[in-house]
């Protein structure tokens, strides 16, 4: 079945460091791919999305490119801030389905 | 504020009891989804409703049930509660019944603790 694999956390970085959180997927169709962020005590918020191969999603300095050849959707940010500390979830949905498949989440901690 | 309202925020109850979690979707959204988030299982899709009708079922236990009312709010009923039901329960909403490329809007969740 469809699945999403994320790198294990926690990831601890200093402020202004470069961030990469790896995400790979397995899907029988042509999925849409998403990154969600969950701040402490809150629900998930859509961070960015890409709906077809080679699309780049971007928001708040975060970027991810839909790579069909490597079935990946890695999240990157050039310079993280303390306020980026949160749990990041990679997810997919395939056309005709009614649910997301979420990865297990990666906790990011940014130190001042 | 995401626009999706969940009540209560916290709930503590004993094993064997029954609880009801409530969700009001974002204005204009017709589809409601329920997810369970636990430490060992991650985010698990439970069930989806669209405009009052059940559209999809995921890993929802028979002890759990849900419905969506004419005003589009939804309730998730959990009965014969067990310790393992302790989790964060999220509601999400979207305009269309499928996720498409639009994404969901999530509420802030109800934290259920079964003691």
Jot down its keywords.
heterodimer; A: 112 residues; mainly beta; 6-stranded mixed β-sheet; 12 strands; globular; B: mainly beta; 7-stranded mixed β-sheet; 4-stranded antiparallel β-sheet
Number of helices of chain A: 0
Query: First CA to last CA of chain B: what distance?
Result: 30 Å
Major sheet characteristics of chain A: 6 strands, mixed
The total of helices of chain B stands at 0
N-to-C order of helices and strands of chain B: EEEEEEEEEEE
Mean pLDDT of chain A: 92
Helicity level of chain B, as a percent range?
Answer: under 10%
Quick structural overview:
By secondary structure, chain A is mainly beta. Helix content of chain A is 0%, strand content 50%.
Model description:
- The complex is a heterodimer of chains A (about 110) and B (about 120).
- Chain A is an all-beta fold and about 110 residues long.
- Chain A is about 0% helix and about 50% strand.
- Chain A has no helices and twelve strands.
- In chain A, strands 2, 5, 6, 10, 11 and 12 form a six-stranded mixed beta sheet that branches. A four-stranded antiparallel beta sheet of chain A has the order 3-9-8-7, with no helix packed on it.
- Chain A is globular and about 45 Å long.
- Chain A starts with a strand and ends with a strand.
- Chain B has about 120 residues and is an all-beta fold.
- Chain B is built from no helices and eleven strands.
- Chain B has strands spanning about 5, 10-15, 20-25, 30-40, 40-50, 55, 65-70, 75-80, 85-95, 105, 110-115.
- In chain B, strands 2, 4, 5, 6, 9, 10 and 11 form a seven-stranded mixed beta sheet that branches. Chain B has a four-stranded antiparallel beta sheet with strand order 1-3-8-7, with no helix packed on it.
- In chain B, strand 7 and strand 8 form a beta hairpin.
- Chain B is globular and about 35 Å long.
- Chains A and B meet through strand 5 and strand 6 of A and strand 5 and strand 10 of B.
């Amino acid at each position: 079945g469809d699945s999403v694999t994320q790198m294990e956390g926690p990831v601890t970085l200093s402020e202004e460091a470069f961030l990469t959180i790896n995400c790979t997927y397995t899907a029988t169709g042509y999925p849409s791919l998403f990154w969600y962020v969950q701040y402490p005590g809150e629900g998930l918020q859509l961070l960015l999305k890409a709906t077809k191969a080679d699309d780049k999603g971007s928001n708040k300095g975060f970027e991810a490119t839909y790579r069909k050849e490597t079935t990946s959707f890695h999240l990157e940010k050039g310079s993280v801030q303390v306020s980026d500390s949160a749990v990041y979830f990679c997810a997919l949905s395939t056309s005709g389905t009614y649910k997301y498949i979420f990865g297990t989440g990666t906790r990011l901690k940014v130190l001042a | 504020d995401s626009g999706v309202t969940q009540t209560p925020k916290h709930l503590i109850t004993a094993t064997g009891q029954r609880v009801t979690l409530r969700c009001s979707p974002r204005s204009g959204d017709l589809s409601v989804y329920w997810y369970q988030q636990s430490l060992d299982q991650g985010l698990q899709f439970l069930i989806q409703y669209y405009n009052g009708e059940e559209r999809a079922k995921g890993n929802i236990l028979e002890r759990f049930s849900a419905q969506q009312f004419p005003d589009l709010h939804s309730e998730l009923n959990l009965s014969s509660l067990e310790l393992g039901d302790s989790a964060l329960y999220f509601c999400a909403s979207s305009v269309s019944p499928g996720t498409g490329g639009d994404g969901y809007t999530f509420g802030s969740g109800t934290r259920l603790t079964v003691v």
